[in-house]
Amino acid sequence: MAKDLRGRKLPKGIRQRGKTFEGRVTINGKTHSVRGKTVTETEQKLTELRYKLSRGIFAENSRATFDEWFHIWLDEYRKLRIKIGTYETYRQFYKSLIFQNLGSIPLCSIRNTDIQILINHLAEKGYAYSTIKIVFSLINSSLRQAMYNGMLERNPAASVQLPRRKLPEQRRALTKEQQKIFSEFSKESKLYEFFAVLLRTGLRNGELRGLKFSDIDLDKNVLHVRRTIKYLDGRGYFEDTPKTNSSLRDIPLTPDIIRLLYSKKDISSPADYILKGKNSSPLGRDLVQTELNNIIKNINSHGYEFEHITPHVFRHTFATRAIEAGMSPQVLKTILGHSSLTMTMDLYSHVMPETRASEMEKISGAF
Predict the structure, then answer these.
(1) What pLDDT, in 10s, does the model give residues 64-105?
(2) Domains of the chain
(3) Strands (DSSP E) along 191-279, which ranges?
(4) Is the pTM of this model over 0.90?
(5) For residues 227 and 19, what is the distance between their CA atoms, to the nearest angstrom?
(6) Given CB 3.0 to 4.6 Å as the disulfide criterion, which of 5, 47, 103, 104 pairs with 99?
(7) How far apart are CA 338 and CA 113, in angstroms?
(8) Among the listed residues 206, 315, 203, the one whose alpha carbon sits nearest the alpha carbon of residue 250
């Protein structure tokens, strides 16, 4: 049994090295060591070391690259807790924005600067703040789990600084005049009913494309939102659950909406998509955008100035018309499927200028 410089017996596996103490343990023929300023500190570190070694999670034993660990983390720790669409999106983000910069680096060799350089590079390239935030979240969460597993002594992403968030662009919504012009020119479009229903319901693009006749309850006059249509390279279009739990909702039907939904009624099964593409498949997002572009091109050719828009503008337009009509925030939140009232109230701050002016007129006589 080893002794210290004063001749006192030391615990098994510990010996004095100058003014410090060294603890050693051998597992599978390999010796590992720790150092401490006192015998007590060394014993504690030695106990922690034995714990890690007994579970195969000692950091020095890990030779995995970040790429190898990331896929383990995504498949074993995240896959069953997120939607398949989210899972596939994470894989695409990693493949296109993370792998090239961090994939080949050994997990234990990743430094704060490696991650910071990547984040700064994305910001300089003009990537949206939301994209950068997702990239950082994937890196940070995977490394944090590696730390919890004992594969890292600390998380190098913990002190990474995200770029300053730019002010978000104001939500785009059609004015009443623009809405009238679009509705008139879209009547000749093969997707007239699609755009008209978007304007009248506030549905998301993918939610409407995923709508089936079985989702319509004419007895209760409601529309059940139960799915959305997603697209991924290599897989094509597929059904997924809506964006959040609050997106699973019922939307009241008006006679106008019912007429539009059944105007091209071609039902062989309740499971048919209401607005479908070729071979009864869901409408493609590119087809929708192309048709929208054609309508706008036609509008502009008749002397109007109409900017490029996406189908999501109709959702904001519906919300704007609802606010202007006096719909309560809580009711609008439910119809839109927002996860929080804050998201809905933010729409109220972007109401059309003419509406703000008219509201101010109501209190002008109070002063």
Answers:
(1) 899 999 998 999 889 888 888 889 889 999 999 999 999 999
(2) 14-56 (no CATH), 66-148 (1.10.150.130), 176-359 (1.10.443.10)
(3) 216-217, 222-225, 228-232, 236-240, 249-252
(4) no
(5) 67
(6) 103
(7) 37
(8) 203
